[in-house]
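Input set for joint prediction.
Command: fold jointly, output tokens.
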Amino acid sequence: MIRKIVLGLAACLALAACGQSDKAGAPAAGAQIAGAGATFPAPLYAKWAEQQRAETGLTLNYQAIGSGGGIKQIKAKTVAFGASDKPLKPEELAEAGLVQFPTVIGGVVPIVNLPGVQNGQLKLTGPLLADIYLGKVARWTDPAIAAVNPGLKLPNLPITVVHRSDGSGTSFLFTSYLTAAAPQWATVGANDAIAWPTGQGGKGNDGVAGYVKQTPGAIGYVEYAFAKQNGMPTASLQNAAGQFVAPTAESFAAAAAGADWSKAPGFYLLLINQPGQGTWPITGATFVLMHKAQADAATGKSVLSFVDWAYSKGDASANELAYVPLPAELKQRVRQSWAEILGPDGKPVFTPAAQ
Amino acid sequence: MTLAAETSAAATPRRRSAKGAGFDRAFEILCFTAATFLLTALGGLVVSLAIGGWPAFEAFGLRFFTTATWDPVRDVYGAAGAVTGTLVTSAIALLIALPLALGIAIFLVELCPPVLRRPIGTAVELLAGIPSIVYGMWGLFVFAPWFAKHVQMPIMMSAEPGSFWEKLTTGVPNGAGILTASIILAIMILPFIAATLRELMLTIPAQVRESAYGLGSTTFEVIRKVSLPYIRTGAIGAVMLGLGRALGETMAVTFIIGNAHGFPTSIFASGSTIASTIANEFAEAPPGLHSASLIALGFVLFVITFAVLALARILIGRQANL
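tokens >
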């Protein structure tokens, strides 16, 4: 009996040991890569992985533990790549010996619950949105709102501000926009977790959407993909060119296309308030982080070929899931940047085929 | 198996060879290791929480416990808001759950027809098996809207402008806030308290109750004057067990409490608890003061829960010795 227990324990330990070596991202014979990080691109990465497994036999084990977790994991070298919605600054990259590049574009959209107001009818400017989130503009009948919405009949309701309660790249992008667009937001700042001056916090996109749906007069912000898939009524925003634009795949793509990536070392660029007539002002890419020096060339090669495949053949599934693919020119720029990801032999681990 | 081993040992005492004694010794060590392993893990947990949270304690000192500012942008953290939220929601949850649990226990032990005893008992126990996240989703999407429409709005509208009652009941009328979180917590801890109370009431010797009935007491008198005083100490322990669970409850509360840092200002206001703050922010917290402060919060929660549970053990132990 006891011998059985001991045997059982030994078996458990052996299993645990195997489990651990799997986690460490060691490249098994059939290419297998481990990644961890942002929740935002997780559905798309899963879709890409599924398609690639059928095609090339590559399996991806992606753990959607959050951007912060992804950064921690890649720094600790427990995964082959980390994923983050919040790009690391060039200094931080250099310090940790990492490189980063964007994979797909998303954005943040304000959602509202205003009885009698149709989807897209409400117009907002950056400073107005900041005043609402600061609690300074507290009723929908406020003259400041009427000034940008002439002719629109707004309900006489108090504004209920809803924000994310969990640390999130969505909050980071949203508050970065408020910081850029409205000087008064400087008192609060931009981060993935915020000391919100007012409002309620919902957990995750569905938590925010839940509160907004249940509260007449509420305003919140969610990922574009989430808003689109759930048919949430959104508001139009004024962009840097002074135009009021609706959140659509085109306006996100316009923001990505208008951006000057050549002046962004390490692809550190938030697509906030980009120039151009049709650009959506709260746009951002989600990033993959890798070590510059790959201890194992095969793993590095697997990760890059995964992304290379996604760039070449993954746009359709990205569109399908309401993500916005990168513009072709940016993809080319990223592919060139891979030349600095080196294996132990000092040679680039992956050279993309000429496009 | 134990029985077989005992009888064989008793039947053939001479067979206890040196080898057998050695095996006994090994067995003893094995059991000792199993018993102390948990204790070591617990100790390790406390130490690692203390070490992880130390930078926060060091940076903020006593202010960490007395201020309610929680600002990740400026790296300023105070636990008072979360601690207050935790204690307030748990206390309200207990206030709601305790009378219900007492009712359930008394009904099941004293009044219930035997046919119903089983189904009701099982139903109460089943409540304990529902995952926390399910309570959270149900609370957010089903309970909160219902609560807002049928409870919160009427109460808010009935409050006289300027009165203390109005201050106590201001909030966003969508059902998310301290009181809703407390009600969900009450439902979650109900089965634990009810089950423990029932067990306690079953320990009352039949002759004690029957003597009371023999003296001509009514059922109510027996319960009030004999049963309840008999289990009083243990009942406090049962309540503490429920409290311990309420203090640490995470997902359900996170979904429904509204997640605003700082002191809750009314029963319908948004608030936060220690567990909800950690659940919300830990995944994205960068290394540094933010992480350290969250770990320090965990340490505070551990100390509170440990104190409550230790008290419960002591009280229940006393009851058992009576």
